[in-house]
Amino acid sequence: MLNPSALLSISITLLIHISSVLASTPELQAREIEAHGHGFNCGNFIFTRKDINLHMKDGCTALRYSPEFNVFPSFFEKSYLFPEYSDSVLFSWPVYFGSKRFQTGPTGYNRIVFTHLCELVGLVIVIPPKFNFDGEALTVCRQYEDVASQPGSSLDISDIKDELDRVNCSDQIMITKEFIMDATKRACSIKNLKYRATWKHAPRNLFASNELLIVPIPLLRKFTRKGLHIDTFIVVNTSCELQAVIYSDRDGDDYNFQHCTKAKILESPQHDADDHFSHQDVDEYDGSLLRESKKFKCHGIILDSRMIRDNLRAAKHYFRQNLSEINKITKESNKKERNYLPYPQKTLEGHIWLWPLRVPGSLFASMGKRKDQVYFLIGLNESNELTGVYHSIARNKRRRSFGRCIGAHETKNGSHRKVSLGPVYHNSIGA
């Protein structure tokens, strides 16, 4: 797989609160994923529950603190892939290998999907339009059974028979038999004959024969910058016939070779392809703005009404929680904490509270270049009712001004036409 920089080349300045917020947020503590249990097999890679916990905390915190000009968290519009969560609002967040945290730049293919209540839904692989004739596509990652933490004996490839069987290499690589056979075929092709002189003898502590050679799998090494720290090798004899699969943790120039072992993924849940037509909006909303139309146009961008309603539902959930937090901060006159208020945030004019409209990553990429890109927020009044959709093309981090979008059926009565927010305070992850 290649890095889809064309899809996600937009500069991302992510707002993540200081670590004390993560530790003190009861929402995250109460819903933290159990560290043990099933992990996920996405393509050729593994994401353990322990690592997913770290990314979930980042994603859930960003949902409340990330400003409107950030791509992530993104609204996850293909909820039909997870029919058991059809009554929840879903968002997605990039996930890297191991404990590598979110950073600016290309984010790769893998995404965590979670609800607005910070419940893990699953992991998906994003397939960009340039690799798929029908546009951007998603593949749901499969869960795998717990694998032994200690490396086992040499794997017999003939034992890999079932379609659920996988070859597990440490805590990062889980590949299919077909992938291994294809890698062997490529390495042993006439085209790659010139590289055979660089192949090394197999480690004697794992194999008795000195006639075996190890061949790296270069495709997997392309993901080292995303946190991959495992080198994977096929083992072949002098006739270039596959004998085994081994791996090594990188430690400078030293290799600590271990055998890959057999693992098994779980059956994926079955659901009809048409399940997405049965999605029901279970939350009430102010229909005077959106009516029953499926689309809402603002500043030349067409927004899906369901996306607006789902964002409103998430905003309403955190609105009351924010009120109690803000009242406490104001009472204690803690100016530093006041700079890190979560969304929805109260406008400088008062009476209106704004929530960044989380849109799908594909829509964000089509909303203009960085210099003239349009950003959206939704507004709520003190009764927790929708006041409108607001937009801005300014990326100023000091005082941000937003104009209200007018629905096709509305008159320009001037009510709540312009609102503004104060400066953006942010910390990057790991700072």
Automatic annotation (TrEMBL):
This is Uncharacterized protein. One of its GO terms (molecular function) is RNA binding. The keyword Nuclease applies. InterPro entries: Ribonuclease/ribotoxin (IPR016191). Residues 1-23 form the signal peptide. SUPFAM superfamilies: Microbial ribonucleases. Coiled coil: none annotated. Keywords: Hydrolase, Nuclease, Signal. It comes from Blumeria hordei (Barley powdery mildew).
